[in-house]
Design goal:
This protein is mainly α and 53 residues long. Helices cover 68% and strands 0% of the residues.
Length: 53
């Protein structure tokens, strides 16, 4: 399964639970899975995007 397909499947699962995933979050996940950013960077960027950091 491709990374894009895996992300779309995961997003669909989350959406069935009543939540949504924005494109920025999908892009960050894609970068993490492609090893373009580290897990620490990913967590920091996600926290910044929701105003937690």
């Amino acid at each position: 399964m491709s990374i894009d397909k895996a992300i779309e499947n995961a997003a669909a699962s989350v959406e069935m639970e009543g939540f949504s995933i924005d494109e920025q979050s999908k892009d960050l996940c894609r970068k993490l899975l492609n090893k373009e950013i580290s897990m620490e960077q990913y967590i920091s960027l996600i926290k910044q995007s929701v105003g937690v950091a």
